[in-house]
Write a structure and sequence with these properties.
The complex is a heterodimer of chains A (931) and B (109).
Chain A: H1 7-25, H2 30-56, E1 61-68, E2 73-79, H3 81-104, H4 111-130, H5 134-152, H6 159-190, H7 195-200, H8 202-206, H9 211-225, H10 234-237, H11 243-252, H12 254-264, H13 266-269, H14 273-295, H15 300-320, H16 324-355, H17 371-385, H18 391-407, H19 415-439, H20 456-474, H21 476-479, H22 481-492, H23 509-526, H24 528-537, H25 543-565, H26 570-590, H27 607-625, H28 630-650, H29 654-675, H30 688-713, H31 721-732, H32 737-745, H33 747-768, H34 788-811, H35 819-837, H36 839-845, H37 850-870, E3 880-885, E4 889-894, H38 896-920
Antiparallel strand pairs in A: 1-2, 3-4
Chain B: H1 3-29, H2 33-36, H3 38-63, H4 69-95
Helix pairs in contact in B: 1-3, 3-4
The chains are: A mainly alpha (931), B mainly alpha (109).
Chain lengths: 931, 109
Amino acid sequence: MNLLAFNLPIVVLLPFIAAAAAAYSAKFNRLAAAWVSGIATIISLALLIPAAAAIFGGETIIQNWNWLHQAGLQFAFRLDGLAMLFSFLILIIGLLVIIYARWYLAAKDSMGRFFAYLMMFMGSMLGIVMSENLIQLVVFWELTSITSFLLISYWQHRKDAREGARMALAITGAGGLALLGGVILLGHIVGSYQLSDVLASGDLIRNHELYLPTLILILLAVFTKSAQFPFHFWLPHAMAAPTPVSAYLHSATMVKAGIFLLARFFPALSGTDAWMWLVGGAGMATLLIGAYTALFKHDLKGLLAYSTISHLGLITLLFGFSSQFATVAAIFHIINHATFKASLFMVAGIIDHETGSRDMRKLNGLLKYMPHTAALAIIASLAMAGVPLLNGFLSKEMFFAEAVSFSQGNSFAWIIPVLVTIAGVFSVAYSLRFVHDVFFNGEPIDLPRTPHEPPRFMKIPVDLLVIVCLAVGILPMYTVAPILDIAVTASLQSTPPEYSLALWHGVNLPLIMSAIALGVGALVYFRRKPLIANYERHEHINAKQYFQKILAAVIRFSEWLSARFDKGSLQNAAAWTLFATLVISAYGFISFNSPLLGDRTLLPMEPVSMIAAAVIIVASILTLAWHRQRLQSLIVIGVVGLITSLVFVKFSAPDLALTQLSVEVVTIVLLLLALYFLPQTTPKETGMSRLGRDALLAIASGIGVFLFTMMVLSRDFSSISEYFLANSVPGGGGTNVVNVILVDFRGFDTLGEIIVLALAGLGIYAMLQGLHINPHSRFRINADAHPVILQTFSRLMLPLMLLVAVFIFLRGHNLPGGGFIAGLIASVALIVVYLSNGIEWTQSRLRVDMHMVIGFGLLIATTTGLAAMLVGYPFLTSAFSHIHWPVVGDFELASAIAFDLGVFLVVVGSSVISLVQLGQLSHKPENPEGV
Amino acid sequence: MPFAFELLLSALVLVGAVLTLIGSLGLVKLPDFYMRLHGPTKATTLGGGAILLVSVLYFSQKSGDVSLHEILITLFLFITAPVGAHLMAKAALHLKTKKVKRTGDYRGE
């Protein structure tokens, strides 16, 4: 098989697998996590390389699989020049960050967690840049928000890390929602969610009446992700992350995702006034604010954060110019910024690591302690400042040239070159500060540690990045030109204009602007003291405060809203739900034009059914009447359940009857355990008005359900059951239609249900863990908690009950039974043992961790489904054959039985875990001091 | 099916039904908890056992194969009923449930 037919999803998904592997391997050896991550990254890179020839030849590789194609969702990947450039940035800088982080993390930091998050993030980023389907892109976009949240909050014990992570998640998450909206509008306009179609219909999109909302929604996503004004404030707070994270997220990847969208959608959305004003305006504001603020930050990473904001603004502004040359410059600057900013972050991390401080007022004269690091930092900073012979100079020159050429159309636009030069001035000034303050400028002031050079491997990633800065800066044509060319072609979706990467273009306006920026920048730096003093005298807008105020207001509003409605009471919530349902169905009844009842002759009434119905009615009324005597009402509820299962028997649904019966048993045990903690009777709580309201709701709902049932029952209708009956044996290989539906026809539903069940079980476990409640009982507890007769017989019963469970399980495919019922029976068996012998006794013998049981159940069920996919059938297709076993006789072996085993395990695990946890509530914790 | 066999089955069904009825009547009529406990646990269990026996015999004869489900059910019934009765009696003693004079307390003798 041709590798180029399926390598892209592997490249994207491999980091996710590596994340799990890294987390797991770290249990044995903390460095193994780094090795796993590094090797996975290299494999991903290696899988990309075979595609390079085609991409450099100008092709676009699209690998497409149908997913939910009716909803426009495809599992589709795209590799073109732009995606290739970003993938290389993500993977190569990712690899360097992995090497760096392995030396950076302290012994007490969990390597497994770090690398698992990092790899998940890497996979999400690759997913963004390689998605062909836009909805899939949104999914990966959200994943980057979540994984970056995890990365930023890696040091969970630090308040600033948690707050910064929450802020980043709130802002980028909101942007993700906006992106979803924008993408859906795009899909609506174009009629397809495939990127190729969207990129080809630029004119259609720009002339559509929904263009402006689409643009604004997508730009919201871009601006939040790429920290553009006015959403830029989350980025400095995200600096609470470990430095390798900052080096990765805030140089090459996360914040570039927004920029990537600009480049990606450039042919589809750009070229209008709205685009120019919105993108250009935000870019210009961000460029200036970032450059200005960076100079005044005393924290190394703070300076870099604002400088990142400023450079992102620069790139955004370039896209705002909407010209083809500007796009060349923008993409060139993306590459350059990623290289020098990643190396600068790593240098900041080295300094922090080796001196214990990031405060530039303390860090001085580090040159003689760490000359190698200093050399790297100086080169990278000069690249950031835009000094000739370094890569930053080239793209900055192009940027200045674009600013100049843009200004020629308009008499007011002369302001643009002036403003960008001012930004350039500050950029030179803060770059100088990074170099001069830290490495020169006297002696260090009371640092926590005596500085020295870092371990060799911490410098190697920086070495490599700095070599790239130099190589690109000196020999652009031989280094960056080919990949830049294909990236620009892919971004523009057309042949790029003739541009020159030469160092020397003669003395022109951009060169003069550069010279001014360098000269005035140096001047500003050396006059910085009064400037900084002046800056600190003034109040500055604290965006964090505003953010928190808005957040608090939103929370207050939601609380107010829910206080109006359900008042935190379950009864009120139920009343509102019923009320809403009534209103909707009343509308349905009113707008229903045909006669209410159909003309089908009703079956005659017969005495047994009538008695059953009467018993149900009486039991329901008794439940109501006795609801304050909890035990009695529980017993009569049980009557309702039993009659219901008899009704199932009458209508030939033995499966349902069995399920109902076992659910009934488990429910009763559950409620009895809960009753243990409640008073035996409840006081009268509700007044007449409340009773009246509830009675009204109840009667109206009853009448509604009755009418609806009568409407359905009194007319002939063809249901889907005929299909199931006809296809159960040929299609699913089982004669028990109910079970075949559960494990085959509607297997996906069942999978979803058992996942919900598993989550519920785990949720109950987590909620009740560590909780201790004293039983609410007026009676003294009998000393003989586990009577010996009960103990003995329950142990005797256990194998018998498990035998029944196995029997019910095995015959499930053809006769009433199946995994769900068998699971319930097995859990009842286990719970009986728990109840009669005590939790300690049972747990010391039943050493199976129910978490593992749940996990294995889900794993088996999912693997069965995937196995079908592997051999080319849709997910969860069941295969079956009959084999002849000696003794047992003819035995049917269906792959569905494995799926059913998964169901069985999940049911057992979830029921036992929640019931045991509930039973454990009254137990005293083993170590009293932990209370 | 031989007539004698049918007769035996019918008799067993009747015996089962009567015992179950007696158990239910006892549950309603007997004066205190301790006596009432006998109805459903002794008589009804026995009645149920008789009916299950009929089922075993009938289906074994009909299919020519030994029908084992009912034996398992009988086993369950005969284990759970006395254990249940024992637990209920224990609970009642613990809670000092009301009793009539004729119900003696022989603990500690």
